[in-house]
Specification:
By secondary structure, the protein is mainly alpha-helical. It has one domain. The chain contains 14 helices and 4 strands. The strands form 2 sheets. It has a two-stranded antiparallel sheet with strand order 1-2. It has a two-stranded antiparallel ribbon with strand order 3-4. The longest helix has 15 residues. It is globular. The N terminus is likely disordered.
């Protein structure tokens, strides 16, 4: 068992084990923005300016999943490739294409992530060169405070923003209902562009009325302010929205209850 554990831990450093979900749009490749389709007014490629987050923000680490399975967080009967693929299908090209949102969706605890990366750091610490390389290569993964903040979502954390992204986007508001273990964090996140759309004063009324309850959620928000799918899509299709990643896919947000549950309800793996 110790040999398998060591192989999993060391092979995680191979970048091929990571899937970049920002570059995987799921079932609709026509919606995927590429360097060829992102041209500015002068005809120059503006792709880098529209990648809001650094590459590693969107990396799903397959070897972390394998470690979760090896240590019992994920049953041995689960097909990790299928689980990862299903998640990319749902959340590719959204701000939830990261390890923490993946864990939230599948019920993998925060402790698993911290234990995994702390153990990798300990293994590297025995050699000065390895330790220096680890701290440089995995400084994003090790930023626990940014990944697990109680009030600022990872997508708004400055440490994950691409330095080439020149736009000052409005900040999202995340207030989870502490008694709800059923829904994901995204369900309790109101994106900053939606707040800007309805106005801060009106949002403050909504916030004061519902914050901390199960009614402070994105579905109630769009119902409360009567935001149609056409209005929603226009917000994230306007010239004021620059990021290639969106916070939500409207086909699930405005879909049937089954689609909403698939998108916003946690799906813990049965043990």
């Amino acid at each position: 068992m110790s040999i398998c554990f060591s192989l999993i831990m060391t092979s995680c450093e191979n970048s091929s084990s990571r899937v970049n979900t920002a570059a995987n749009a799921g079932s609709d490749p026509e919606t995927l923005l590429t360097p060829e389709t992102l041209l500015n007014d002068e005809g120059n490629n503006s792709y880098e300016d529209r990648v809001k987050h650094i590459d590693m923000f969107y990396a799903l680490d397959f070897m972390f999943l394998a470690w979760c399975q090896k240590t019992g967080y994920v049953p041995s009967t689960v097909d990790l490739n299928q689980m990862q693929g299903d998640y990319v299908f749902l959340f590719g090209c959204t701000e939830d294409g990261n390890n923490i949102a993946f864990m939230d969706y599948y019920g993998i605890p925060k402790e698993a992530y911290i234990t995994y990366w702390t153990r990798k750091q300990e293994l590297a610490a025995g050699d000065a060169k390895s330790n220096a390389e680890f701290n440089e290569d995995f400084k994003i993964e090790m930023n626990f405070d940014a990944w697990f903040s109680d009030d600022i979502i990872p997508a708004d954390q400055p440490v994950f923003i691409n330095p080439s992204y020149k736009y000052n986007d409005p900040v999202s508001v995340f207030v989870r209902c502490e008694t709800d273990e059923h829904h994901t964090n995204r369900y309790y996140t109101i994106n900053g562009f939606l707040i800007e759309y309805v106005g801060k004063d009106k949002f403050s009324e909504f916030h004061d009325k519902y914050a901390g309850t199960e009614d402070f959620n994105i579905l109630n928000f769009i119902d409360y302010f009567d935001i149609s799918r056409e209005q929603f899509d226009s917000i994230y299709g306007s010239e004021n929205y620059h990021s290639i990643a969106v916070p939500y896919k409207s086909e699930y947000l405005y879909g049937a209850d089954e689609l909403k549950d698939l998108y916003f309800v946690r799906h813990p793996i049965e043990h």
